[in-house]
Structures
1.
Amino acid sequence: MELQQRLARVGVDDEAVRGALEDLERVGLVDDVAFARELVESRAGHRLEGDRAIRSALRAKGVDAAIGEAALIESGGENEEARAAALAEQRAGRLSGLPAEKAYARLLSFLQRRGYGYGVASAAARRALAIQAEPD
């Protein structure tokens, strides 16, 4: 848990940290489930990040994997493909002066850095740039 790590970094005794956290949880001031939901909402809704990036952020904040997955599943936001498409559309205008291949490569790379897998990122980039998929 992030709060526990922060208190430990500033030198608070482990036993005191545990006691304080138990007290905070008992009165409802520390709620990992609510925290995970808010983080997912922020990352998916505002930043339009992919599921991979959201999972990484949850892990970095010390959220239990099961709680994080539940928050991702429960999120009422758009699905990952829709988020990728919206983000690609936003970004595509900045690439209009580039050759199609270069614009595609840059947009694909951007989407992957935002936590989207290759397949989702590629499809979103192609749609946003109106590029036909290459025949198999």
2.
Amino acid sequence: MSEPTHLAVGLLKKAHGVKGDVLVLPTTDAPEQVFVSGRVLALMDRQGTLSGTEVTIVKARDYHRAWLLHFKGIETREGIEALKGGPALAIHVGEARPLAEDEFYLHELVGMAVILKDKTPVGTAHSVYDAPQGHLIGVRSETGKEHLIPLNPEMVRRVDRGARVIVITPPDGLLEL
């Protein structure tokens, strides 16, 4: 699997008003640092494929739990609705802030070994799902059995990016489902 060149930072939801504003649901933990005037964003689909279309932010402001963005050259509702190429906005990987030791990008989890705290192998992470209750890691065992592991601190104790290992402590019975 090749490393992605871009990281999704927001999902285009819908046009807002008639003057070219768009409602964006952030997928970054630092939207105030990403959604700034002058930032160039690429459009991509949910699978991470870039469309080749880029937009430049002229204005940005938080709006409830989302953000309202206005792009250079798009002054109408129809202009926003005409954006083709995908529901996601992305930045180049090189523009992302450096990660702290205990941080990781979701795409990095795919392909990592998943083990229990006592080092018993569980399987390999093959997907990360965005569910209403939070992210889930799709894990496939050596026997082909599928597990969905909630990505929360109670369940995922450690992600070792260097060793490419995810350490989990599931409640009794979860891996038997």
